[in-house]
UniProtKB/TrEMBL annotation, chain B:
Belongs to the SoxA family. Heme c 2 binds at C163, C166, H167, C208. The active site is at C208. Its EC number is 2.8.5.2. Its main location: periplasm. The lineage of its organism: Bacteria, Pseudomonadati, Pseudomonadota, Alphaproteobacteria, Rhodospirillales. GO terms for cellular component: cytochrome complex; periplasmic space. Its cofactor is heme. The keyword Cell wall biogenesis/degradation does not apply. Pfam families: SoxA-TsdA_cyt-c. It is an enzyme of class 2 (transferase). This is L-cysteine S-thiosulfotransferase subunit SoxA. GO terms for biological process: sulfur oxidation.
């Protein structure tokens, strides 16, 4: 399916309605399982997740320019459950606290003076989040 | 060149570090060799503007200030300065505009006009090696410093990041292809190889703010002038390196 960043789908959980429970979001935001291959694409795409700006992972070894502002994500799928990973991607500050440098990718808790074209929009769509979570789950320890 | 200096009191770091230390070896070498540094061509071009009369008074900068290497030696290292007439701090760009409008009968430069960047680089280059400092005891400088500090620690944009998140908390880390420095101002205007042009400080500030997906303030607005006061203080003791060379 073709997805557009920030466009809401009627069936999706709206950003302000995402239920956090003990730092977990157990329900899929779309009600459907994500696609890990599409998730890997959204993960590296600079206009979508751009997760490589801050994270390394062996699964993305062939990509140029990995940042290291955040931890290496190898084994993230073993360290965290799917529900925890969803919570981290939706709004990392709910998991790591308000001082986290990781942006909230499906959250409207944003900084000051958001540029007009991003008003009321999330960085990723619900579908992108589900795809990325499905990809993160595959990052298992050997 | 002083590229590391003990931080002033109240600074979050023990040591302030020039952006030069964070760049690749080739980029550093190009900056350090004034014959290779492409920014120096703009400085030389500005030296001609310095002695060219402009405006209704028929004067050039040289008419009043004489030899730039004497009259402007060490001047650029101590801006922003309190300006009594404007009742706010001004930077070198605005001081040049002040002389153009009040002394020469010329138009102020448009923000980021090629000549504005070149003239600013010329003045700053006369302080090459001189340690930067700002005098916070002049006028209301202290309250502008406070305001700049507020801005520095305020998260902006959809990415919800502050200057400090990148240049303090993540200093030394890579963010994609960029090695995060302390975000010091001592090399401005800098020469960017990618753009083959000088880049002004307020352009850089605006670029960093835009990258958080926020609206960015106008160049020379109170908000960015306060930020310039504060960030310049954060680099106290570093040598002026204008025109520094960047990727």
């Amino acid at each position: 399916a073709v997805t557009f960043a920030g466009t809401a789908n009627a069936a999706d959980t709206a950003p302000n309605d995402v239920a956090f429970n003990e730092m977990q979001v157990s329900e899929s935001l779309t009600g459907m399982p994500g696609d890990p291959a599409a998730g890997a694409d959204a993960f590296k795409n600079r206009k979508l997740g751009n997760c490589l700006a801050c994270h390394t992972t062996t699964a993305m070894e062939s990509e140029l320019f990995h940042g290291n502002v955040g931890p290496d994500l190898d084994g993230a799928g073993s360290r965290w459950t799917e529900a925890q990973l969803r919570a981290i991607v939706v709004d990392a500050k709910q998991v790591f606290g308000p001082d986290s440098r990781m942006p909230g990718f499906y959250s409207l808790h944003v900084g000051k003076n958001v540029a007009e074209k991003f008003h009321g929009k999330t960085i990723l769509s619900a579908q992108d989040v589900e795809n990325i979570v499905a990809f993160l789950v595959t990052l298992k320890d050997e | 060149m002083i590229t590391r200096a003990p931080a002033p009191e109240g600074h979050p770091f023990d040591e302030v570090l020039s952006g030069w230390l964070f760049r690749e070896a080739e980029t550093r070498a190009v900056e350090a060799d004034s014959f290779q540094n492409p920014g120096m061509l703009e400085v030389e071009r500005a030296a001609e503007i310095w002695s060219t009369p402009e405006g209704t008074a028929g004067k050039s900068c040289e008419t009043c200030h004489g030899d730039v290497s004497e009259s402007m030696k060490g001047v650029g290292a101590h801006y922003p300065k309190w300006d009594k007439d404007a009742n706010r701090p001004i930077n070198i760009e605005l001081q040049i505009d002040k002389c153009r409008t009040e002394q020469m009968g010329a138009e102020p430069y448009k923000f980021d006009a090629k000549d504005q960047k070149a003239m600013t680089a010329l003045i700053k280059n006369q302080s090459l090696g001189e340690p930067m400092s700002v005098d916070l005891s002049q006028g209301d400088m202290q309250s502008w410093w406070d305001r700049g500090k507020d801005t520095y620690y305020t998260r902006t944009g959809q990415l919800n990041l502050s200057c400090s998140n990148c240049h303090e908390d993540s200093m030394g880390n890579m963010i994609r292809a960029d090695h995060l420095s302390q975000g010091q101002v001592n090399g401005f205007p800098t020469y960017r190889l990618k753009q083959s042009a000088l880049v002004s400080l307020h352009n850089r500030f605006r670029g960093c703010i835009r990258d958080t997906r926020a609206e960015f303030p106008k160049a020379f607005s109170d908000e960015l002038m306060a930020l310039e006061v504060y960030v310049t203080w954060r680099g106290t003791g570093l040598s002026v390196e204008t025109p520094a060379v960047r990727q």
